[in-house]
Sequence to fold (295 residues):
Amino acid sequence: MGEPRTIVVTGAAGPAGRALGTQLAQRSDVRAIGVDLAPRAVPGFERVDAVPAADDPAYDHATLELVRRHGADLLVPSVSEELAHLAVLAEAAGLTGTVVVSPPGPTATAGDKLLTMLALARQGVEVPRHAVADVLHSAAQALDWASGPVVVKPRVARGGRGVHVVEDAHDPVWATLDASWIVQSFAPGQEYCPQVYRSPKTGEMQVVVLEKTGRKQGRVGNATTVTRLAEGEAADVAAVARATTEALGLVGPLDMDVRRRGDGTPVVLEVNARFGAVSASAPELLDAVLGEWPA
Fold:
């Protein structure tokens, strides 16, 4: 057996990073290093170093330096806000095979929830009715527009941050919204978080459908508990996850939110072009990454 490969995971102290640490701890063929804005000991990682935020001018040099310093075979990002910039950096610095990220265009589209909705709708993938928040001038207008409750969320965010269900025509949240927010009609049915891996070499896909059985914010938000569905269950959800991946041109590990409308039709709420917080329930994604990357 050769020397273990060195895997650097960003956002190691966050939910997605911790999920990866749990899985990496069970492998003898890798050496796992974590980095985080607020470094602390995280199970599964040999160490966790400090790094600048993605919007810090020091980010580029610091990222390239940590790859060099640790002799990283793979850099696995788990922070949504850094993905679009990191995809460009990886291409510019000749690290596209080392950084586990989709190409810049698809990554940027997936990183903005409005752009995601526009791209999917244009290609016939089912999504909720959607609009930029500032074109709807009041909660009452939004409820009328959607013929029912709506969800508001930041266009660029992660982990359910800022997600809010609006049902009251006088909801005060509306006074805080601008064009950096998106409005979606609320899909009241069962919610899922499909875990997808698409090979950057062959384009082949693996899809694991996880059903959300608990959510951080009740009806919306990150999954606190999930149930892995058997292959063939919720086949329509798996199909929409595949269609979404192809429509956006994404590769590597993906984490999606899909919910059913009142008539049962699954609609895509958002796409995370990275490992998600529940990736430990679909360990084949990490197996696929370690089997194919560097790409």
Summary: The radius of gyration is 19 Å. The first strand starts at residue 5 and ends at 10. The chain has three domains: 5-100, 108-126+188-281, 130-185.
